[in-house]
Amino acid sequence: MTRRATPPRVADWIAGLLLEADDARRLLDDLADEYAEFQRPHRLWLAADVWYLRQVLTSVWVLRRTSATRTRGFKAQGGGGVTGGSMGIESLARDVGYAFRQLRRSPTFTLTAALTLALGIGATTAIFSVVRTVLLDALPYDHPERIVRAWAHTDDGDITDFSFRVVEYEQLRGRSDVFEAVGAEFPASFTVLIDRQEAHQVQGRMITGDFFDVFGTVPELGTMFSPDEIAAGDRVVAVVTHGFWTRFLGGDPAALGSTIDINGNPFTVVGVLPESYAHISGTDAQIFIPFTLGTSGWIAHWLDLFVRLQPGVAADRAQGEINAVLDAIGETDRRSAGWHATVEELHEMVVGDVRPAIWATFAMVGLVLLIACVNVANLTLARSTTRTEELSVRRALGAGRGRLARQLLVENLAVASVGGVLGLGVAMVGLRAVVAAAPPSIPRIADVALDPLVLGFSATVTLSTAVLFGLAPMLQAGRGAMHPGLARRGDGGSPSRGGLLGGLVVSEVALALMLLVSTGLMVRTLAELDRQELGFQRGGAATFRVSVPSSRYPTSADTHDFYTRLRAELMSLPGVTAVGAGSDLPVSGEGAVASVTTAARVEASVDEAVTVLQRRATAGFFGALGTPLLSGREFDGRDRADGETTAIISASLARTLFPDGEAVGQRIGWGSAPDEDDWMTVVGVVGDVRYTEVEAVPDPQLYQAHPQSAVRQMAVVVRTDGDPLAIVDPARNVVRSLDPLVPVYDVGTLNGLVDLALAGRRFTMMLFAVFGTVALALTVGGIYGVLAFVVGRRRREIGVRMALGARSGDVSGLVLGQGLRFVLIGLVLGGVGALGATRLLESLLFGVPATDPATFGAVAILLSLVGWAACWIPARRAARTDPMAVLREE
After folding, report:
1. If exposure means fewest CB atoms within 10 Å of the residue's CB, which of 394, 404, 711, 847 is most exposed?
2. 669 DSSP β-pair partners
3. Is the dihedral of CA 608, 610, 614, 618 positive or negative?
4. How much is the pTM?
């Protein structure tokens, strides 16, 4: 006999009726348990079972009575077409409504799962916003893929990432078959007088006339200066940023054509850049003046070169073209001989340094999301185990595994949707915190926002997590036969589900170990950097910069006289122990590069000179820095402009130039073949100072006495016996008393300079630490939740064991052993995964190997301890089981 199919709507209606009846029977069962102490509960249990059986029989009668009519109607609709689609939508709507009713009945599960997913989705969305804006978005220039930056380097590799000479720039401008535009800039700092009353130090650039053509930038107001306009000589004009125009010129369009005082000279403002303009080599640039190729006195400077390629021209061809120019010039000009170029795409130049850290952070937050999904999968699988009766009833009424899986998927989507909405809130808060804490070295970080693309990514993550954490329960849906589902409540659950729960715990521990090991390596790296010998004493010293304008201090003697008076006045302040000034500050990446040799090397016909960092310093500079004097003396009154030219060199340079003898009293000269006026006498040797990066090996350094090589912009270091910042205002007043039109800027401390140099690594470590803490908390919660569930499901077994003589210690050991077995397996698998994952972090590490045994061991011990703590609570609860109470339930 052919079995007549039950129409889907009727089956769903009957299933809903039976589930409501099952809920009522559960209530009666609970009442029976509650009154078990006062009367015999078997009567209530019997009444509950009789009532439930009556509801089942009634449902079957209703089904038989209505099946013919319902079936005819269903067949008449054809099961397809528009009506069929409508039935599918109605069925889906019922599934959604039923899903939310089920979630309302389990508020603890819903809240826990939603908050867990909110953490994972919110963190992932926030970091993806950073990835998208910083790494993936195109730069805000016209066809940025055609713009490249050119770097010069020596063939011997002593000097890399260097600039180009003016003569090389001029030759490259004529290669129009390869280059559409060639622009160059020279960093500069300008003293700007506003209304002749207040001086401000403003960063800017000296640029060639075609610089903005390379980037396709047009002014918001006014015009740019062109190469033809400034080719014949100096044109005293300036283009300013929108921020400068708003801050200093009142945002008035009439400011075009006005005159501003820059370094004591009048400049006419001819253009204002758009508000959206972001300077490629630093957002601090606010003023742009012409870099003239005539007789301005700037011709000796080096230029940073940017090139816009012709359409279809590859970067490799551009690099070959630049090298051909250098080779041609080098045949007649020895200063270009031995130099070659490397071309770098603009996007790589901007994000190359931060890309590894950002991708590593995104990978770490991905692990957090996986742990969150595993945690929710544990909760969902445990909850589905308690719903065996419901699923069995639906299976008995004809619902297939696919139908049950769809219902569970809808419920998972509902939970994920709630988690996704909460996750957007977490992302908004987290993104604000990330932007606020991010160091300035991360490009375009201020532009990060939750735009439509990011929201689409968040929605995709939400849907993916719904499928991911619901996969295990859906695979289990409907596997049981009808009779287990209709059996008495409280069975022990499926062994396969217990194994699946254990497998999820193992994966959670493994993922947590991978993330925590990575976090530990970053913490160790920062600790190693903090322990580095920098060549100066970080604490107790304030720093600020001063720039004297050439209009007021026209000669080197005038400039040095100002700094001499400034040092004397600062030394008289209470609490000041040392004062000095230098052209550059440590760990700031600053300084000129030069080359030197010795008389012995010249006599031996050694053509290669030694590359050094060239610095200027006043008397007291090394004492203020806290840099040790190893031999000889510091600069003092004997180092006069009209006296013998002197120098102080670093210990590494002394070892290189004079490996067999004392450096003090020896002579060194500029270049590989110095003229008579290029020689200097070494009067002292000081310790090596890290000027470029904290983690970089100190370059050889040469210091010139300020009276003999005066510069107008100097960094002043004031060492005190108290709070260094407390001396800033008195020091500012001293400068103002000497000359109110000399600006004081870049105020800080030596310790602050180190913090700024380490800000990028500290920021990455902070994110890793946050994600590691979240992962640890989720793992602890996951282990505890699974074991608590298992203990609850095995309550009868535990009661029987204890009734047969098992002691509390035996029971707790049983539960602890089961939980710690999961933890141990997870540690082993996670260790193997971490060995591969941490190798991807090698570029971010310093002073610690990617496979550091101490870090792996510490994290394994930490996870073992927290895993034991998470297992101990359910084990303790199991050991307190009352066997008599359990047996009475039977």
Report:
1. 847
2. 597, 679
3. negative
4. 0.79
